[in-house]
Amino acid sequence: MLFLSREQILSFFTMRDAIEADKKAFVLHTEGRARVPLRINLDTEDKSGQCMFMPAYVGGLNMAGVKMVSFFPGNAEKGIPVVPATVALIDGATGLVTAIVEGTTLTQLRTAAISGSATELLSNPDSRVAALFGTGGQASAQLEALMTVRPLREIRIFDVDPERVRKFVTKNQPLADRFGTVLVGAKSSDEAVEDADIVTTVTTSPKPVFDGNRIKPGCHINGVGSYTPSMREIPVELLRRASRIFVDNREAVLAEAGDFIIPMGEGLFSSDRIAGELGELILGRVGGRTAPDEITVMKTVGFATLDVVAAAAVVEKAKALGIGTDVAL
Ligand SMILES: NC(=O)c1ccc[n+]([C@@H]2O[C@H](COP(=O)([O-])OP(=O)(O)OC[C@H]3O[C@@H](n4cnc5c(N)ncnc54)[C@H](O)[C@@H]3O)[C@@H](O)[C@H]2O)c1
């Protein structure tokens, strides 16, 4: 069984690798070859933490896996991860656990690669300016995904906490330098989206994070943060203006994303407006952007197929390069 740590994964698995893995996962999902039961959530006795189990079996790879991810807010003051995650992979031919992969890094890569895939498939190729909302655990990888798929000149960073913006820009400018991109701290959400060609939101906000009327024609928006019916980042005005709306997983998004569920409850949005899943777009079953001035939207809540396919890609590349720690149980 192969163990792969954060440092090992980051030493060889690139954002481009993650994007290709996610595209494969979208296709397998849309083709109906993955089985993903509902996530199991277990609260601790004192309610101070929650352990979650996200299993999937992926035909095509003949591999099963489970992401074990927990939420322990009290860990922050202990200086240990608040949302620790681990992915175990199981060989579909033998049932043996073949790998244990550090799951926080894997989640960051596979989640950013969802936005990377959607941006590559839907944004205008000449996009030069982007905006990123949120500077938390997922944000650096989201930044890298945007810069990987489009030659961006400038990315505006916005967060409700200006001090976090300042720290994020300082910490991530060396990464942006590798792509020739300048990071600019935005003082307001209006300033962030002004003339932006691409917007990614990766926040924990319960309400829309920007004014939908301020988004310029031709913009592509990735909604990543909300994953419960009471959370939302994308305003309904933007949904109404959008020409093409895509999701990573139709069933999951309609069950979990407040961005759609809240306006649907108010009679302001209909699921008929969803053009399709990213897998359908990749397979050519539905069309994407048809004109440079169309607004496109992608909403993701994530699903375990992405974790299993990305972990399998990490393990395959690690074995080819002889990286990782082999352990006999
Ligand atoms: N779609 C997926 O597959 C997927 C995967 C992983 C995480 N997520 C979700 O993404 C979100 C972000 O994750 P994280 O780990 O970076 O969270 P985090 O708690 O580390 O950071 C969230 C950031 O959002 C900021 N924020 C809150 N409201 C805002 C607003 N209105 N405008 C701008 N910034 C605002 C906070 O100040 C904070 O900096 C979470 O809700 C998480 O569950 C989604």
Description:
- With 329 residues, the protein is an alpha/beta fold.
- The protein folds into two domains: 2-106 and 305-326, ornithine cyclodeaminase, domain 1 (2-Layer Sandwich); 124-302, 3-Layer(aba) Sandwich (Rossmann fold).
- Helices cover 37% and strands 23% of the residues.
- The strands form two sheets. Strands 1, 2, 3, 4, 5, 6, 7 and 16 form an eight-stranded mixed beta sheet that branches. It has an eight-stranded parallel beta sheet with strand order 10-9-8-11-12-15-13-14.
- The protein is globular, with a radius of gyration of 19 Å.
- The termini are close together.
- The model has no long low-confidence stretch (mean pLDDT 97).
- Bound molecules: nicotinamide-adenine-dinucleotide.
- The site of nicotinamide-adenine-dinucleotide has 25 residues, from helix 4.
Write the layout of secondary structure elements.
Blueprint: E1 2-4, H1 6-12, H2 15-30, E2 34-35, E3 40-43, E4 50-58, E5 63-71, H3 75-78, E6 85-91, E7 97-102, H4 103-122, E8 129-133, H5 139-149, E9 154-158, H6 162-177, E10 182-185, H7 189-193, E11 198-201, E12 220-223, H8 236-241, E13 244-247, H9 250-256, H10 258-265, E14 274-277, H11 278-282, E15 296-299, H12 304-321, E16 325-326
Parallel strand pairs: 1-7, 8-9, 8-11, 9-10, 11-12, 12-15, 13-14, 13-15
Antiparallel strand pairs: 1-16, 2-4, 3-4, 4-5, 5-6, 6-7
The structure holds nicotinamide-adenine-dinucleotide.
